[in-house]
């Protein structure tokens, strides 16, 4: 059984079309989806002290996702606001509620405080630790590597920030890049660059054009798996990566299994589009 820990961001996404908010955040979505696939999963993040935090903790308790190493601060939690147009989410900018600048503190506290020896011992339980560009703990990656911890990382589209790939890739085992607007050649070049910088396996997701994986020797392409009815594409990329990690770990990290792993991940991501939010568990909210 795979053991996966997510470190970083958590939030609630408020659907202004329906008045329902859903748990989310890249670093939370990965362990939750891993748990839904039968893995042993946990989340560690910096959380606020409001109804969002209460719903996130309640959801993790219901699903059996450990959150014993989360940290809490007397500030509002992160919230995103969006509407649904067709099957796609459209985030509202500016949001209908002015963001509280104190919420930004939550993204910075993990790197500021660092990890305790108890945290380091806890990390050793897991096969992989997932982080994202919103985890903001890149400065701690060298020590994580020194302790032989395996990291998966979601760049989103920040791989385009000058010097960022060079800073992250040497410490990452599996990387995900969002490449919806890139050509096939551009995607392959980016994945090769990741590998050349030290990442063992790099994956580019391309929306309706499927995904591509590179292991240093071969590119593996995977088409999307279609469903007759799509409810919400929120978190589909996170669902894909979680399924990839679960299957990749279960297969022992074997390159020969990558075609099967990619098919499994594509199917799981398609199924995730048949529920509202990143993984359901929505509750009604009032717009203050």
Helices and strands in order:
Elements: E1 3-8, E2 11-15, E3 20-24, H1 26-36, E4 40-47, H2 51-63, E5 71-72, E6 79-85, E7 88-91, H3 105-113, H4 117-123, E8 128-132, H5 141-146, E9 151-156, H6 164-168, E10 174-178, H7 184-196, E11 201-205, E12 211-214, E13 219-222, H8 236-250, H9 258-272, E14 283-284
Parallel strand pairs: 1-4, 1-8, 2-6, 4-5, 8-9, 9-10, 10-11
Antiparallel strand pairs: 2-3, 3-14, 6-7, 11-12, 12-13
Helix pairs in contact: 1-8, 8-9
What are the salient characteristics of this protein?
288 residues, alpha/beta, 9-stranded mixed beta sheet, 14 strands, 24% strand
Would you write up a description of this structure?
With 288 residues, the protein is α/β, with parallel strands linked by helices. The chain contains 9 helices and 14 strands. The protein has helices spanning 26-36, 51-63, 105-113, 117-123, 141-146, 164-168, 184-196, 236-250, 258-272, and strands spanning 3-8, 11-15, 20-24, 40-47, 71-72, 79-85, 88-91, 128-132, 151-156, 174-178, 201-205, 211-214, 219-222, 283-284. A 9-stranded mixed beta sheet has the order 5-4-1-8-9-10-11-12-13, with helices on both faces. A 5-stranded mixed beta sheet has the order 7-6-2-3-14. α5 links the parallel β8 (128-132) and β9 (151-156). The N and C termini lie far apart (43 Å). 44% of the residues are buried.
